[in-house]
Write a structure and sequence with these properties.
Layout: H1 4-12, E1 17-18, H2 19-30, H3 36-48, E2 52-54, E3 64-67, H4 69-94
Antiparallel strand pairs: 1-3, 2-3
Length: 96
């Protein structure tokens, strides 16, 4: 799985993070290194769709982001669909 939008949402499901922390988290759990252009392009799209929002942080100059309720629902729908695909694929591999 290498869809930057889904990877960013999955990272933020754990809690608020700034861009670099998202990049590191995605690389850790998905083995995918998002470049800055890809990451911030995804952040812009997700923010425009209302799935993430910037979080005010007085303690840090970096901009953290968090999931919105709509973003959480979207992520759950996407992961549910992927889960069906994975289950079907694994089942079919066992019958071959």
């Amino acid at each position: 799985m290498s869809d930057p939008n889904l990877l960013v949402l999955a990272s933020l499901a754990e809690g608020e993070k700034h861009g670099y922390a998202i990049m590191e988290d995605v690389e850790r759990f998905a083995g995918v290194r998002l470049g800055p252009g890809t990451l911030y392009g995804a952040i812009t799209r997700l923010e425009q769709r209302g799935w993430i929002r910037p979080v005010k942080s007085a303690a840090d100059r970096r901009q953290p982001y968090g999931l919105t309720a709509e973003g959480r629902r979207h992520l759950e729908e996407q992961l549910s669909g992927l889960n069906k695909i994975v289950k079907t694929g694994l089942k079919r591999l066992r019958t071959v």
